[in-house]
Specification:
This protein is of the alpha+beta class. It has 7 helices and 13 strands. This is MBL fold metallo-hydrolase.
């Protein structure tokens, strides 16, 4: 079965997630924004074998440490969708703009598409393309544990910003309603910032996307 730990990193307190298979001890880090020594220590403390880095999108607080960690540890970078190529190309400039440590440019080992499947140990994780916050944003759905790692698509009580380049508010709302809600009301999501919530709770109470007909 899959297990996970949330590890906030960077001054933006971005929720990097350590996800692993408890049978094989193979692990991935989702959204390596920075603080690499702390992330390495968390992997080592649990006796895990880090096999890949997964990205929901390429904003600096989610991807700023990805290139360096992949290079130093010889790890593949999986995701996001190709729509975020321009954000990856701009990571060095993003790091200067937001006062982050220098971010390395990288080329993902594998771009992701809607409906892709990823294997982690003995478990499978589904990929959904959820544009709106960025054009190439993806989420990772671990159905066996009713969890979804949603990056900056959805938050407890809020939604992702769409005022960055190539953000699209209507597209974001459609992504949430058409691609997240079908995962089920009981599914708990791990957002890019802040506390966890469930899709059912957000359908009932989130002012941006609540279902007025009831969840």
């Amino acid at each position: 079965m899959l297990r996970y730990e949330t590890l906030p990193v960077t001054p933006f307190q971005q929720n990097c997630s350590l996800l692993w298979c408890d049978q094989t001890q193979e692990a991935v880090l989702i959204d390596v924004g920075g603080e690499l020594e702390m992330l390495r220590a968390a992997v080592k403390q649990r006796g895990l074998k880090l096999v890949a880095l997964w990205l929901t999108h390429a904003h600096i607080d989610h991807a700023g440490g990805t290139g360096q960690l992949a290079r130093e540890e010889g790890l593949p970078i999986i995701g996001p969708h190709r729509g975020d190529q321009f954000w990856i190309d701009g990571l060095p400039q993003q790091s200067v703009m937001f006062g982050f440590p220098p971010a390395e440019h990288f080329t993902p080992t594998r771009w992701l598409e809607d409906g892709d499947k990823l294997q982690l140990g003995k478990s499978e994780v589904s990929v959904r393309h959820c544009p709106g916050h960025t054009p190439g944003h993806v989420v990772f759905h671990a159905a066996e544990i009713e969890r979804c790692f949603v990056g900056d698509v959805l938050f407890a009580g809020s939604i992702g910003r769409t005022d960055f380049p190539q953000g699209d508010h209507d597209q974001l709302i459609s992504s949430i309603r058409e691609r997240l809600w079908p995962m089920g009301n009981d599914t708990v999501f791990i957002p890019g910032h802040g506390p966890e919530s469930s899709f059912g709770r957000e359908r009932r109470t989130n002012p941006y996307v609540r279902d007025l007909r009831g969840a």
